[in-house]
Please model this.
Amino acid sequence: MTSLTMLAPVNGNVDVMNEQACDFTCFDPKVLSFIETLSNTLLKDNEAKTYPELVALGFWLRQSNLKKIQGLAPEGIVKPLGWVLHFTPANVDTMFIYSWVCALLMGNNNVIRVATKSTELRECLLNILNQLFAQPEFVQLGERNLFVHYHKQSDYSAKLSLKADARVIWGGDESVNGIRQLPSQPRCRDISFADRYSACVINGAQLTNENLPKLAQLLWQDTHPHGQLACSSPRLIYWLGDTALQRKLFQQVNHLAAQNGQMINALNDHLVTSQLLKTTGKAAEPIIQEAVAVIPVTCFDDTWLDWHLGGGYFLLLPINSLEDITSASSAKLQTLSYWGLEQQALVKFAQQPSIQGIDRVVPIGRALDFSPVWDGYQLLTMLSRGVEVK
Model:
């Protein structure tokens, strides 16, 4: 068996953790104190502040947001499941913190298998966790929350799966299915976050020269973090109605991308993907293909997303009504962000039983806002157990 590396706390021990009971209650004051300290550190640490993803995480962990999250918790007698094994995604550096926090808030012990790829952002985050776990008031938490790494070909996933009361699995379809096939306890709960994609819908009739810069900023805000590889970042744009300011909008998004230094590598990737799309006979010439690329298409095939390399690459599909999205999407569609549409119309649309996907409908600019309701899962409920007393 290949070695297991302890990332945080550096003196942690999986065998010792296995012997630790769940000593924390749901929304335990000690846990809330730790999360508040983590939030403050992320928002004040000089290195952390250089990463927008860590700043966003710090804001998400603030007390005001935790109170909102607590309002989503199940009612009645609720207890931890036990200990939860997390398999983290390779494409989004901070995603494992969000699901871990949900499990932590419900009082669980946790082992988090951090993906192979090491980045400066990830190392900054792990350094902060190590600093906090070393503080006397948080040592007990550190003993029960281990961030580890091991080669995915080792047998640690199988060994740990046999101990876990729940597995939170982030990854591609193949990776998720591979982990789910590993033997586990009969009552182990698997929460799988497999391959998904996201889209946005823009009502061109509501676009003006005055509000165009704001929309461009919000769209880029949903696109830029994680290189557009997050499952909730829009890759497909449904365009409804007037197209008079369409090109101007995408030129503004391109300007924002260029300001972020996104040019040569993105352009090369976009050219490759565009050439593949042209072979389908369903794609027109790009509206723009510089720091970002916008490619009009006559239909949508989710297999095209296998060619998507991120970096600000959008497919653009015109629609006549919201109902057209039903036939121009698949069950893999996770988040639909919107601009220029009334919420009431979106609620009515989302309720249609014929829609296979769409687990989230949010305004453009909030596509990356994590919620304990994710991919259709009520995470706080899934990561706890209820006790009925009559």
